[in-house]
Amino acid sequence: MRVLLLPFSWLFAGIIRLRNLFFDKGIVNSVSYSLPVISVGNITVGGTGKTPLTEYIIRTMSESFRCALLSRGYGRKTQGVVVADDNSTYADIGDEPMQIKAKFDEISVVVSEKRKLGIETLLKLQHPPDMVVMDDAFQHRYVKPNFSILVMDYFRPIWKDFLLPAGNLREPKSEIKRAEVVIVNKCPNNLSSEEATYIKNKLKLQEHQQLFFTSISYKEPVPLIKTMKQELPVIDAANHFQQIVQEKKNSIIAVAGIGNPIPFFEMIKSYGKPIKTFRFKDHHRFTIKDINKMVENSKSENSDETPLIITTEKDAVRIKAIPELNANVAANVWYIPIELIFLFNNKFLFDKILYNYVRKN
Question: Which domain holds residue 276?
Fold first, then answer.
């Protein structure tokens, strides 16, 4: 099938190269702004871990600077420029911006298909940001970021991939030259320095480009609906969750509507219970029919108890928004937050590069 689709990939490559050439030569205008703009993106279709990196940048930089997030707001029902507020829902701004807004209430979050309009809206706010993080913006070249970070998946190396539609690449591999920093994400925690060197050689980065390796750390489960009983310190909440797992007679339901759910499903197996996995497309808009079907399919013949549902943090945003969600079912839904971990003790180097860029600009 890939061989049959290769001619279409070559045509796609020609179009993308011509488009990028127009931007590089100034034939198509790319606007720069006076404040620091950090782009986080990828050239691979599907999840590479941009959201945990975006959260890491905001968490790190908001200690010293007033940060803002600018996103397309994929999956939202609205159009145009939307400034998030306390009443915003994921249908208004998208699941990933909603997840970040819930974690970092002090930052400004704006969604817009046209990034130029989004930045101009941010600059007109009563308290404009000191810096802007643009999510999923590597291909959106109408705004010229002064600092671009490209994220790729360790398990899907770009040198083994093809352009769409034969493969999963949005752009030719050579376009990674536009990034100041390249991050290989989802690496094993014990990645060897020899393998890291091998990957670096394969990427053929230029001298000015910095390469980092990161992994994903799964945190303690968090209840979707926080009751008084569940308003506990992290360690007590974890013990409470383990108690629930042991008491359940039915299989655990593992639900994921993300780009690559396989690592998440593998992690759920560590709880030592039979699991039933349900995979949906990325950004899937969950309905009560989805939930009821999963619950009914997971109940055993000898038990009517509500199964335990474990999902990702991004999916939890969409599940919580289901209007008809039964309170008993909602009380049995937990999600697993994730966190980015820098390998080879390079966290401080990455932070230093970011701080130097923002301060300089």
Answer: 222-336
